[in-house]
Amino acid sequence: MRLAYYPGCVAQASGKELDMATRWVCRSLGVELVEFPKFSCCGSGFSDEANEVLTVALNVRNLALAEGAGLDLLTVCSTCTGMLTLANLRYQDPKVKARVDAALAPLGIQYRGTTKVKHLLRVLTEDIGVEKIRAKVVRPLGGLKIGAFYGCHLLRPADELNWESAEEPHAFEDLLSAVGATPVYYRGRVMCCGFPIQFVKPDTASRIAGRQIDDAKVHGADAMATPCPLCHLSLDAYQNQAEKAVGHSLDMPVFHVPQVVGLAFGASPEELGLGRHLVSTAPALAKVGAGARASP
Q1: Measured between alpha carbons, how far is 256 from 2 in angstroms, rounded to an integer?
Q2: Cα(first)–Cα(last) distance of the chain, in Å?
Q3: pTM for this predicted structure
C-alpha cells in the first residue's frame, strides 16, 4: 500500500513523536509513505474562519498534489482530516469550484476530485483490518485499560465525514481490543478536548479537558489515546492546567494511536518518542512490560 503522507503541522513540530510512531508502524505493516514537501497547512483555525474559498483552495491544492501521483492521502490529525474531507465536498459546489479553479490556475494546478482522505485510524481498522493487526502483536497490552478519545473532527459533521456514529463509534475500541488492551467506555470519549478555545478562554478549555480526563479515570482508565495531536496537546501538554481547573491530580498518560499499536508490535518507548510526553507514560508501560525509560 502506498499513500501520500500528510503529517500536518503539529506532527512536524511540537508533536514529532506522532510522526515517529506513524513511520514505525507503517514500516512494520508494509505501508509506503510518499512524502510531498510542498504540502501546505490545512488552514484550520485561521483561514477557515476568514475566507472559505482560500481555505478550500489550500486544501484542494494538497489533494491535487496527491492526485497527480495517483495516491490517496494519509492523515494523522483529526482536524486535518476534517478540513481536507470538507474541502473535497465544498469543491463539488459549482460556484466554489469556479472560484477555487481560478485561484489555482496561475499555479498550473487542476483537480479532478479523485483523492480520498484517510486518517490513520481508518487505514488500520478498515484497509489493513483488525485481524491483521491482531496477528502482528508480539507484546499484548493486556492489563492496560485505555480510554479512546475520539474528539470532534474525526466524527463530525457526521453527514459529511460519513464514517462512524458521532455518538457511539467503535473503530478505536476495536483496535484497542486487537492489540490486547481493555477499552474503557465513557461519555467524554466523543466530546471536545477544549483545544479550539485554549488561546481565547484558557480556563474554560482547561475545565473541558479536565472533565474528559476525569471521566475516563472514573471509568477505570489507566491511560487515554487519541487520533488527534491537538487533542493530545490539550490532554497531555496542558494537563497541569486541567488539574488546576478541576482541583485535583489527574496523572493520566495520553498516547497517540500509532504509539499504542507500535507498543503492541514490539517497538521500544524510544522508537515511539514516548519520552517527549509531558505526562509520564512509565506507569502504563510498566503494566505491559515495556520498561519505564519513557519518562521525561
Answers
A1: 22
A2: 35
A3: 0.95
